[in-house]
Each structure stands twice: as structure tokens, then as C-alpha cells.
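> forwarded from #structure-qc
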């Protein structure tokens, strides 16, 4: 009865009962995601294929002697998966075939010779940097069409080297924070053993020199000592030059440049001791050496005198006539007046000066 009813329904729809029970077969296809794959000898890359509808895929590479390329499933994939690894073995042309039932597709594999790097040449043989500074190093690769132009960057020392994220032949060198000599090595990754080197010399410059005294008063025939403090203590070159302008005599210590023995002049005198760095930092300091007769007390003169600087000027006050001398930091006489008394404002260019009123000296900075 049920069969009769179904037959009547399909008859009303214009279909036979037998035809309605048969599904139209779906055509099986399989295809590669690319038509060709180009490799160099020793290079490995992946190939992907898709079956529609989804089905296990048979992979094969026609046997050839010598073997141009070999195929294998990835370690985490089965034999009939969608991805295979292809490795170039010999120079030549071959093909990889995938098949699902009667459906097939082909990908041609072209294997080219591996072009090794013949020379690596850095743009600098030596780099001199201040502590913490940086410098970009660039490498030239020969030939330009080398298969693998990437480099391994290595350092032997305290300076560091960081390969560029955007350029395989560049690296950023960062100097050490202390005096150091580092060897930077750029070596080809392709096994050719081509390399070049650069020496990075880290230089820690002097920031300042400070004498332990601005003014030194020495009796005729006596001696005293000046000491220089150098900052920072880890400066690469801490050597100093000592000079004196005047009748006093100076002898630098043979053990350390930071100590000097001052011998007073044979008569009352004002001399200037200048200590400066031997490196290119242009750091210096100055001390006024006043040679006086035994028993002279220059502190009496200070009671009614004042010296101070303001922007563009030096202000001087003296309650009695005095001799005024203004010297540059290098000891050159900038201005000289006799019998100066009262309040005075003197214009000065920016810089460091030594102002002397009789036997009283003061170092000032005019801004």
C-alpha cells in the first residue's frame, strides 16, 4: 500500500519511482595550489594539494636517475595528506603527481645549481665609538645572485651586534660602556665559509677635570701640591698636560698625571697653572698660584672686596684701590686696571675667567 502511494506521488511529479532512488554522482577532482616549484640544490619547500570532495591523496614522483627531487610527507602528517615536502637533489627538471581515483594533477619542479657566496666585504674595517653609541655596519655580498645571501653576525668582546630586521646584510653595532676592543664577524650562512671582520674600539671620553684648589698661596721658597680629579674614572685616556704661565715652577708627578708639585717664584708673583686632557675632549681647569713674602696675609684684603658674575657681566667691589686683572681660562690677560676702587660692572663675553684683585683671585663663569 505504501509503495503504491509513493509511486502515485512521483507520477504526479513527472518522475519514475526508480529514477528518484538514484543520486547523480559527483565528479572527483584533485589539484595543486601551484603549477611549478623552483628550488636550488639542497633547498626544501612544501607543496599543497586539495581533493574535491575531500579524499586521501596519492603522491608520487616518477623515478629518475639521478634523482632530481625527492618527496616525503611532513613528520606530523600521513602518507595521503594534503602537504608534502619536496627537496632539490640534482640540477634538472622533474614532476610531482597527485591522484585521487582517476583524477590527477601535475606540478613541475625545476632544480637550479646552488650559487655559493664567494666574498663578504664589510663597509668598515675599524669603527671608533664613544661608550654606548651605535653604528650601522653593511656587508657587500659577491656574487649578487648568491642563493643564500644571509649572514651570521658574531662578536668577540663587550660591544654588541644586532642584525637588521629588514636587511639581511646590515647589523647595528652598539659600543661597550667601558673602554673595549671588540671583533665583529660577518660570515655567510651558506657554508662557503666566507667572512669579513671589523674592529670596534670603544672610547670613553673625559667629561671634566677639577683641581683641588682654585687659588694656591705659597710663600717665597716654599712648595705645595695640586691634585687633579678626572671624571669619569673609566675614561680611556686619563693623561693630562700641565702648563704654568708665570714665575712659579711646576713638576708633574712621574707616577701619575693627576698630581703636580708647585714651587713658588723667587719674588712676589701671580702665576696660572693649567691642566688639560691629552685626548680630544677639550677638558681643562685652572689654578691661580700667588707667591707672597712670608707673613703676608691676603685674607685681610677680602673683607671689603667682592667678585661675582651675572649674565654677561662681572661685578667687582673694593673699598680701597686695588690692581685688577682678568684672565681667560687659558691664562691670557683679558683686562688690566690699576687703583680700581668702588663698585664696577664690566661686560665680558661668555666663558670662564679668573679675576684677580691684588692677591685675591676668584674663578667665575659668565653666561
Amino acid at each position: 500500500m505504501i509503495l503504491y502511494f509513493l509511486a502515485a506521488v512521483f507520477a504526479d511529479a513527472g518522475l519514475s519511482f526508480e529514477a528518484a532512488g538514484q543520486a547523480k554522482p559527483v565528479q572527483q577532482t584533485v589539484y595543486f595550489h601551484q603549477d611549478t616549484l623552483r628550488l636550488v640544490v639542497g633547498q626544501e619547500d612544501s607543496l599543497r594539494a586539495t581533493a574535491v570532495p575531500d579524499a586521501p591523496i596519492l603522491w608520487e614522483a616518477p623515478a629518475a636517475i639521478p634523482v632530481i627531487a625527492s618527496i616525503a610527507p611532513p613528520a606530523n602528517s600521513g602518507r595521503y595528506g594534503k602537504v608534502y615536502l619536496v627537496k632539490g637533489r640534482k640540477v634538472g627538471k622533474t614532476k610531482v603527481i597527485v591522484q585521487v581515483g582517476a583524477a590527477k594533477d601535475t606540478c613541475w619542479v625545476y632544480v637550479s645549481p646552488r650559487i655559493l657566496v664567494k666574498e663578504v666585504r664589510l663597509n668598515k674595517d675599524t669603527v671608533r665609538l664613544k661608550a654606548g653609541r651605535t653604528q650601522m655596519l653593511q656587508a657587500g655580498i659577491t656574487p649578487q645572485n648568491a642563493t643564500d645571501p644571509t649572514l651570521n653576525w658574531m662578536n668577540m668582546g663587550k660591544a654588541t651586534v644586532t642584525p637588521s630586521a629588514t636587511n639581511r646584510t646590515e647589523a647595528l653595532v652598539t659600543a661597550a660602556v667601558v673602554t673595549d676592543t671588540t671583533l665583529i664577524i660577518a660570515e655567510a650562512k651558506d657554508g662557503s665559509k666566507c667572512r669579513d671582520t671589523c674592529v670596534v674600539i670603544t672610547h670613553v671620553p673625559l667629561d671634566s677635570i677639577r683641581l683641588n684648589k682654585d687659588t694656591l698661596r705659597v710663600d717665597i721658597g716654599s712648595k705645595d701640591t695640586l691634585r687633579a680629579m678626572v671624571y669619569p674614572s673609566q675614561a680611556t685616556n686619563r693623561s693630562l698636560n700641565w702648563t704654568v704661565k708665570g714665575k712659579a715652577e711646576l713638576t708633574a708627578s712621574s707616577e701619575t698625571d693627576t698630581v703636580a708639585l708647585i714651587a713658588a717664584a723667587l719674588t712676589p708673583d701671580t702665576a696660572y697653572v693649567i691642566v688639560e686632557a691629552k685626548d680630544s675632549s677639550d677638558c681643562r681647569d685652572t689654578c691661580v698660584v700667588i707667591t707672597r713674602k712670608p707673613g703676608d696675609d691676603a685674607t685681610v684684603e677680602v673683607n671689603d672686596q667682592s667678585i661675582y658674575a651675572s649674565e654677561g657681566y662681572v661685578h667687582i667691589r673694593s673699598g680701597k684701590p686695588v690692581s685688577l686683572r682678568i684672565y681667560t681660562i687659558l691664562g691670557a690677560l683679558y683686562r688690566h686696571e690699576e687703583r680700581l676702587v668702588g663698585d664696577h660692572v664690566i661686560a665680558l663675553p661668555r666663558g670662564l675667567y679668573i679675576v684677580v684683585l691684588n692677591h685675591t683671585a676668584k674663578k667665575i663663569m659668565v653666561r
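QC bot note: Confidence is low (pLDDT under 50) at residues 1-10, 297-303. The chain has four domains: 30-112, 119-203, 208-292, 299-366.
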